[in-house]
Design goal:
The complex is a heterodimer of chains A (102) and B (192). Chain A has 102 residues and is of the alpha+beta class. Helix content of chain A is 60%, strand content 14%. Chain A has one domain: Winged helix-like DNA-binding domain superfamily/Winged helix DNA-binding domain (Arc Repressor Mutant, subunit A, Orthogonal Bundle). Chain A contains four helices and two strands; from the N terminus they run αααββα. In chain A, strands 1-2 form a two-stranded antiparallel ribbon. The two termini of chain A are 26 Å apart. Chain B contains eight helices and no strands. In chain B, helix 4 runs antiparallel to helix 6. The radius of gyration of chain B is 22 Å and the shape is elongated. Chain B starts with 7 loop residues before the first helix and ends with a helix. Classes of the chains: A alpha+beta (102), B mainly alpha (192). The interface between A and B is medium-sized, with 22 and 25 residues.
């Protein structure tokens, strides 16, 4: 599940440069209602360490300086890879649950 | 300006302050903002937050401390050589001295760099003070060893003076390069 969330976070960051709280609200909008800034923050840290995203400090709409993330070249490649892998997994799960063709 | 600029942990601290300020502006608690208990959040953070340091950071620090310790040994040797009969009491073997310097530099380099991803990562000033205290202790002990044990005659030989001067210049030059290096790292990761 963590891997799926990471892929989705990367896709959101790919759409626009954004920061933690905005990412959480976007995740809520897409149906990840359990997403919290507290779980997101360590994931962002991990993605940054892996070199998939990079952060720069800018003022958030609320005022305080927050770290805005954008994708690196490796991050963009990973998003592509993630989506391809996800489609394969989704197909396999559908096959297992006998949903194919229904 | 400090020799050490903010580490990646410092940047995370800045981000955490941003989260806390946003919570304050919204009139909610920090725990409400992050959606979990503080301990759980910190545990997750510690698990993910361990930073793998690059080998260049270790090399830069190692060389700096090696020069500092070599300088200390050189000064000790100068003092010993300038004292009549002192060489019998304090004969510094070059090879052993270099090994001691290398080991000491490795320890200091490890402490300087690795500790930045450790438990004191959020208190750079305290850490820096502590590192300089260690170095001062090393120098102080060396000097004390010489001053207490020998009847000093401070005449300096030209060659020793030249070597020591070169070492002093190298230490300052390397300190300058080290500062530049951390400034570049600081820019790269937006630590400031």
């Amino acid at each position: 599940m963590k891997g799926i969330l990471e892929g989705c976070i990367l896709k959101i960051i790919d759409q626009t440069e954004t920061y933690g709280y905005e990412i959480v609200t976007r995740l809520w909008d897409y149906g990840f209602t359990d997403a919290k800034e507290g779980t997101l923050y360590p994931l962002l840290l991990r993605l940054e360490k892996k070199g998939l995203i990079k952060g720069t400090f800018k003022e958030s709409p609320l005022g305080p300086k927050r770290k805005y993330y954008s994708l690196t070249k490796e991050g963009k490649d990973y998003v592509q890879y993630f989506y391809e892998a996800w489609k394969e997994v989704e197909q396999s799960v559908k096959n297992i649950f006998g949903e194919e063709g229904k | 300006m400090s020799f050490f600029q903010m580490t990646i942990q410092e940047s995370e601290k800045k981000e955490l302050i941003g989260i806390a300020k946003e919570a304050e502006l919204k009139g909610i608690s920090l725990e409400e903002q992050i959606g979990m208990q503080g301990k759980e959040f910190c545990d997750n953070l510690l698990q993910e937050g361990e930073v793998k340091r690059s080998w260049t950071e270790y090399v830069v620090e190692g060389m700096f401390w090696f020069l500092i310790f070599s300088l200390a040994v050189q000064i000790t040797e100068m003092l010993a050589l300038s004292t009549p009969g002192a060489m019998a009491q304090l004969e510094l073997d070059k090879g052993i001295a270099m090994v001691v310097c290398a080991v000491s530099a490795t320890v200091m380099e490890y402490r300087t760099v690795a500790e930045y991803s450790g438990r004191l990562a959020f208190d750079n000033k305290q850490k820096e003070r502590r590192l300089w205290k260690y170095a001062a202790c090393f120098l102080g002990l060396l000097l004390l060893f010489v001053l207490l044990g020998l009847d000093m005659d401070m005449t300096l030989g030209i060659s020793n003076l030249a070597v020591a001067s070169i070492l002093v210049i190298l230490v300052f030059f390397w300190g300058f390069l080290r500062k530049k290096y951390w400034n570049i790292q600081s820019e790269k990761y937006s630590w400031k």
